[in-house]
Amino acid sequence: MNTTTKYAAAALAAALGVTVLAGCGDDGSAGSGEAEGPGSKTVTLVSHDSFNVSDKVLKAFTKETGYKVEILKSGDAGAALNQEILTKGSPRGDVFFGVDNTLLSRALDNGLFTAYEAKGLDTVAADTQTDEKHRVTPVDTGDICVNYDKKYFAEKKLAPPKTFQDLVKPAYKNLLVTENAASSSPGLGFLLGTIAAEGEDGYEAYWKKLKANGVKVVDGWEQAYNEEFSGSAGGRKTGADRPLVVSYASSPPVEVLYADPRPKEAPTGVATGTCFRQTEYAGLLTGAKNEAGGKALLDFMISKTFQEDMPLNMFVNPVVKHAALPELFTKFGERIDTPPTVAPEKITANREQWIQSWQSLVLK
Questions:
Q1: Is the predicted pLDDT of residue 363 greater than 90, yes or no?
Q2: Which of 63, 158, 181, 214 has its CA 20 to 30 A from that of 191?
Q3: Terminal CA-to-CA distance of the chain, rounded, Å?
Q4: Chain-wide mean pLDDT for the chain?
Q5: What is the CB neighbour count within 10 angstroms for residue 238?
Q6: Which pLDDT tens digit goes with each residue over 63-121?
Q7: Cα–Cα nearest to 68, from 297, 286, 313, 285
């Protein structure tokens, strides 16, 4: 499975020729190691490949707490989670970051995390706090949404779609590319968005219409966005011919940030009625060698310092209510106030059946 919002933003940055920092002099290969223990001054964060934080922010954490952060990157979100499940009870690090609401139940059911109520949790948006036992701490949110190529729709004098129902109209036939819901986080998020919008009794009929309207399915986000989508920098280079793609509400600001010269407006837009909200969490790994350091890191991840660093490094939204967004986000991004979502427990009960149903409807 592809990882979440941050992976997509990082991959987009890479497609535009940008190198992002791994943070605090870390090469991404460190682990907690035998030398660590309760008195260790190193705390190891296990995450997916797209975790990114400013060097100055990690140094601020070290100055504040005395702990140095080492980052162990473990592939995409699904792969990273699977590795922790295989090593549960004897984890490779102290804190795991990157499990989202589509996979949260797998982590909790496998007992990966030790309960800890992070300091400052009262400043975190209540609707992101889905685990009453505090086994995980909300860190960020991101919205999976259909993006559109502004130039295409202007040239065709066609209004871009706004809602899920618009996507099945004849005017948008053969225009949309999405990711495989069985192998891609944005693909699964888009499927869940259609379930939230159309209901458990209506999503199958909706996907039959979408298939009849020529939706194209590819394996993952990078192929969909950088190879198939005509509005992306990568897509323009490859001559892509799909002006609609399942991506993120944060994708337009990325297109602006890494363009040279920087445009006055984003070349892509967001169909705000096609979104699904993802929340991403961090947790103290059961059996962590440096439990005190792990708790300090969780506290720091919901501090104003860390939260305000995330948007331009990981292209996600803070969960702390008083954290400010950068102008790039407010000017070029879309704020999705009430996106559809699905409760984690409902995802747990139905995810595999929904994916199987989707595969039989769309891929056969």
A1: yes
A2: 158
A3: 20
A4: 88
A5: 13
A6: 999 999 999 998 777 778 888 999 999 999 999 999 988 888 889 999 999 999 999 99
A7: 297
* Tens-digit pLDDT profile for residues 238-277: 999 999 999 999 999 999 988 888 999 999 999 999 999 9
3-state secondary structure of 63: helix
CA gap 97, 120 in Å, rounded: 18
Which residues in the chain belong to E strands, given as ranges?
42-47, 68-73, 95-100, 113-114, 137-149, 176-179, 216-218, 244-248, 268-285, 317-318
Strand partners, 245: 147, 177
Whole-angstrom Cα distance, residue 209 to residue 219?
A: 21
* pLDDT value of position 184: 82
In degrees, rounded to 5, the angle at the alpha carbon of residue 40 between the alpha carbons of residues 38 and 41 is 135
Angle formed by the axes of helices 203-212 and 185-198, nearest 10°: 120
Q: What is the DSSP letter of 121?
A: G
Element (H, E) at 305: helix 304-309
The single-letter code of the amino acid at 17 is: G
Cis peptide bond N-terminal to 261, omega within 30: yes
Spatial CB neighbours of 177, under 8 Å, sequence gap ≥ 6: 215, 216, 217, 218, 224, 228, 229, 242, 244, 245, 246
Tokens at 264, concatenated: 């006055």
